[in-house]
Specification:
Elements lengths: L3 H22 L4 H26 L4 H25 L1 H6 L1 H22 L8 H20 L4 H23 L13 H6 L1
Helix pairs in contact: 1-2, 1-3, 2-3, 2-6, 5-7, 6-7
């Protein structure tokens, strides 16, 4: 029972690989399959945390694995969706590059400061994940996106800046930092 959260985390890695195989193999109904597996991946992400807390196994190790599996999952998913919709990305590359720079900066700052990867799980990052899923579904099914893309970019930039500021202000590495406002309390521990 206590292994269920870890199995859900590991399943996201497998789901990402399945999405990759579907995308590059040219399966019939690729967009629908990619959307279905993206959605399943997000559900496993929600469930691993909920079940871990219910079972009392929400350890630092699980939270770090969860963050790393999330990162792997979304890199593969975004790569596949962008591969399917290359023309859209070529037309809208600038905001995508900005978010990639901010994401890379957050990881680099965390590693340079703490010698560890990010595992903040902030509320803004969770909200961005939902907007990113909406955008990726929209793009996958319609080969274009306007409103969901703009919302995703906005919250992507805001959430990445918040994570950089969280890492910058933390005195020691921590998991589950809900927002920048919580840093002072965490630093007092």
């Amino acid at each position: 029972m206590k292994n269920i959260p870890f199995l859900l985390v590991y399943s996201r890695i497998v789901i990402a690989l399945v999405i990759g195989v579907i995308t590059w193999s040219g399966f019939p109904n690729t967009p629908i399959l990619v959307v279905a597996f993206m959605t399943i991946g997000l559900i496993t992400d929600v469930l691993d945390g909920v079940i871990a807390r219910l079972l009392g196994v929400a350890t630092e190790k699980l939270r770090v694995w969860d963050s790393n599996a999330d990162q792997f999952f979304w890199i593969i998913v975004i790569g596949c969706v962008f591969y399917i919709n290359g023309s859209f990305i070529r037309q809208h590359y600038f905001p995508v590059v900005i978010i990639l720079i901010l994401e890379t900066s957050a990881y680099l700052i965390s590693y340079l400061k703490f010698r560890r990867t990010i595992a903040t799980h902030s509320y803004m990052a969770k909200f961005w994940t939902l907007t990113m899923l909406a955008f990726l579904i929209d793009l996958t099914l319609h080969s274009q996106s306007t409103i969901t893309f703009k919302i995703c970019v906005l919250f992507g930039i805001i959430s990445r800046i918040e994570i950089i500021l969280i890492i910058w202000r933390l005195k020691s590495w921590a998991t589950d930092v809900p927002s920048l406002l919580a840093v002072r309390k965490i630093n007092k521990r």
